[in-house]
Amino acid sequence: MADTLGSDAPVSEGLDRRRFLTWVIASPTLMIAARLGLDVPTAQAAQPEETAAATMNLYLTLQEDGRVTTTLPRTETGQGITTAVAMLVAEELDVALDAVSILHEDADSRWFTQLTGMSTTMRLLSGPLRAAAADARARLVTAAALRWRVLAPTLTTARGVVSAPDGRRAGYGELAQDAARVVLPLVSTQPKPVSQYTLVGQPTGRIDARDIVTGATRHALDLDLPEALPTVVARPPTLRGTVRTVDDTAARAMGGVVDVVSLGTGVAVVARTFGQALAARAALRITWTPGPASALSDADIRTRLRDGIGARPLPPLFTTRTLEGRFDFPYLAHAPMETQSCVARVQGGLAEVWVGTQDPKHAQREVARALGWALTPWKVTVHTVRAGGGFGRRFFNEAAVEAALVSKAIGKPVKLMWSRDDDMRHGRFRPASHHRILAHLGLGGRILGWHHRAAIPTLEVPHGFGDVVTALVGEVLPEVTGAVFFALSQKLPYSFGQVSHELRDISIPIPTASFRSVFTSQVGVSNEVFVDQLARELQVDPVTLRRERLDSNRLKAVLNKVVAEGQWGRALPPGVAQGVAVLEEWGSAIAHLIEVDVTGGTPRVLRIVIAADVGLPINPKGIEAQLQGAAVDAMSTTLSAGIHIDAGAVRESSYADYRWMRMKHVPADIQVHLVRSDDRVGGVGELGYPSAAAALTNAIARARGTMPNRFPILDEGV
Length: 718
Known about the structure:
Mean pLDDT: 93
Distance between the termini: 64 Å
Radius of gyration: 27 Å
Strand order of the largest sheet: 12-13-10-20-17-18-19
């Protein structure tokens, strides 16, 4: 076992503030396990490996053919983490990128959390991954030195080969067994300094790109489990409605139908093909009990939220005037390209499910409880498969629960699919919200205080932060978990006197889930829009106000970058304007400059300029793709996309009426500039949404002369 610390290069001071522990696992070939050691003292770190085996399971295995396999305890949902993980391993091990394979890890109780969210994947895994790969490289070098009877420091590694000064060479594969028997490496097990990186930090194509474009990637519905029967579910017309009566006579008589199973919340039809299942579903005669939100529509929800905002707090002393901003945000569907789906087999008192989930351990608990095995969740094996988008929707595993229940009922494996209509009308939604921001001003325009109160329906977080304890709290007291997350995540990066953010939790019986950047997708957006309004009231340039009041040098750096690259302040035609916004979150900082043209009535985005400091950019090409995608999401939800509730039912049913941006709406000019600091690995997945939405809103406000305060701006449904 090696207690691996970072190198003395600047990147390691940030990346390796914590100790990453590595172990050699008994194996015919070289297998290294790693975990976050949380500053375990050196003496304790040297305990026998059976102690370690119960607390970690990030594995790196070197095969005899020289290939490297690494387990991934998080889920690839399209964000490119498999490529980033492979790059880190290839870099530290000195192997070709195509020699590294990444495998998804099943739900495993040894992991404290397997939750893919909060932009934590690469932030938490990069250190242990580097440590494991560096340890493996040191053992391979040591094995070669012992074989050749030479000094280990004289040996070099490149592209999976150890070389000696006299020309002798040995591939990693032929050294793997000897390396597994190395007791103490004879060279440093520390990761490389960033100055020696040749792959990490370079724009790199995705390792799964060919499979994606050729359709070779395997999602849940692509899996070939023998005898798995296609299954669909008839769902109620209102949210969380339930089955009252069902007449399945006509459906059972149709060709190919195997069985019909009532689930309480819906009726499942099992058939030989999906076409047969869908046809039989349409033949069901069901009466429904309306859901708890059946008396609510959009206007009722807005009234509840506005009423819940409460009275104004007292202003600070010496306040001469107070500016007020009000903002309304709609419910949003996550709308991932892949709808919810699952393959399940429940037989002999055991269950297996194959599902693209953002929290495999939570899926395991949900399925076990549904099957009546809440006290024995280990009877459920959750095989994690890649997912076609997540954005917070896949923290919830309704498809896995339904598939397991149907499989148990019929005694056969099933392949259950949600339609797009199912996903849009019976999924979970980012909560709607109403915001009141107060900026208190004193003599001479001095900013004395800032108060932001947000009225938001309860955010359901039964998964917690990925562990059992917070999951229990999140299930029993979701408003408490939501309040804690709100308090931890919502910050204003400006010196504006007395600053406060306050959450008013409003109980509304519409299913919710976190959406990318969670509360910041509303709170952070409205903050940055109101900063522009404050600048107008003070008659100062919004960039100047931000530069003077930002309390983060990293934010100032990215702001200066977009201002320079976007040519802020240059002369523009009438009806064309620019907007800016910034955000610091998830260990990263970002700024957006967006240029719009409103002369045609409907805002048209002309250009997007992005500057981001994500610390060490493992794969700049992947970061660019993430930030571009987030910008399109922000355009969509700011301008046109939102969910409408009519008497407890969701009006939208597909991309046809959930008005997401098309390619024709996306500007050809989207620039991404990385301001490198290399002192840490910051988050990316959720970073790019809020400031993009705010910058777009600010640009429209400057072009039109009025500040939008209700989203989506082009909403025609109310």
